[in-house]
Specification:
Blueprint: E1 2-13, E2 16-28, E3 33-37, H1 44-52, E4 59-64, E5 67-68, H2 74-78, E6 81-84, H3 98-106, H4 120-133, H5 150-162, E7 168-172, H6 180-196, E8 200-204, H7 208-213, E9 217-222, E10 225-231, H8 232-236, H9 240-251
Length: 264
């Protein structure tokens, strides 16, 4: 349902050109959950940003459900693609309440009208969704989001990214700034939502152990290209040391990114 064909994205760094995506070819099946790993500068975040429109590509094509969306603006893609960034503050509005944030997200891609934002029906739906997360936010709909912890805001971002029923969910290191316990809660909630809504999803992570533990397929990027991928039993049997060795063999370089070697 998602296809990238020969996608190229170049950046200029000093006097040299960096190919963040170097002729990237990538497909994602209906309801498939893919984890993406790679060292710094591999092109992981650029891949997600190219899909959702935050980065314009130099050449190639991005297709969603057979439709070429390469030149679609961000707001048009937003009706079909949910995204959660690494920074918990990016996906929410601090000055608005939890209910107001969720109401805004629920109407993503719809026409704006002068009407009450949070109805009793919506409020009941929001409480039920928040209760499933397990962070005690279901009785705090009128709380301003700026008073929440980073983990609570990221959990809220997760619900906001999925409440408008997107076709695709992009997770850009959404656990990176959370403490281990909150990270576990948010990840489990993420997996439940992906399964319940039958979402196609791409999760970028620096953590190799997380990449092995979650998802249907794992892909490794280096210098803007896919250098290794595994699915099914092959993926389940992988270990972090094996992935490090795979990186070394496929890239011809040693992995020096300490964050990639962390375990939960």
């Amino acid at each position: 349902m998602l296809m990238l064909r020969d996608v190229m994205r170049r950046f200029v760094s000093g006097d040299s050109e960096v190919r963040a995506l170097d002729g990237m070819n990538f497909t994602l099946g209906e309801g498939e959950f893919v984890t993406v790993i790679g060292s710094n500068g591999a092109g992981k975040s650029t891949l997600l940003k190219a899909i959702c429109g935050l980065v314009e590509i130099d050449s190639g094509a991005v297709e969603l459900d057979g439709t070429d969306i390469t030149r679609w603006p961000i707001h048009r893609r937003g009706a079909l693609i949910g995204r959660i960034a690494q920074d918990p503050h990016e996906g929410t509005c601090a000055s608005m309440t939890i209910a107001e944030n969720m109401a805004l997200a629920a109407r993503r891609g719809q026409s704006r009208l002068l009407r009450k934002a949070v109805t009793s029906v919506l409020a009941a739906s929001f409480r039920a969704q928040l209760a499933d997360i397990g962070l005690g936010l279901e009785n705090r709909l009128d709380t301003r989001v700026g008073t929440l912890s980073g983990g609570q805001r990221q959990a809220l971002s997760l619900l906001m990214a999925t409440c408008a029923n997107p076709r695709l969910l992009l997770l850009d290191e959404h656990l990176a700034n959370l403490d281990p316990r909150t990270s576990e809660v948010v990840m489990e909630a993420t997996a439940r939502l992906i399964a319940a809504e039958k979402l196609a999803a791409i999760m970028v992570t620096h953590n190799m152990a997380e990449a092995i533990a979650w998802g249907d397929r794992l892909i490794m990027l280096h210098a803007g290209r896919i250098i290794f991928q595994a699915a099914g039993g092959e993926k389940a049997a992988l270990t972090v040391p094996e992935l490090v060795e795979r990186f070394h063999v496929a890239s011809g370089q040693a992995l020096t990114d300490d964050r990639a070697l962390l375990t939960p």
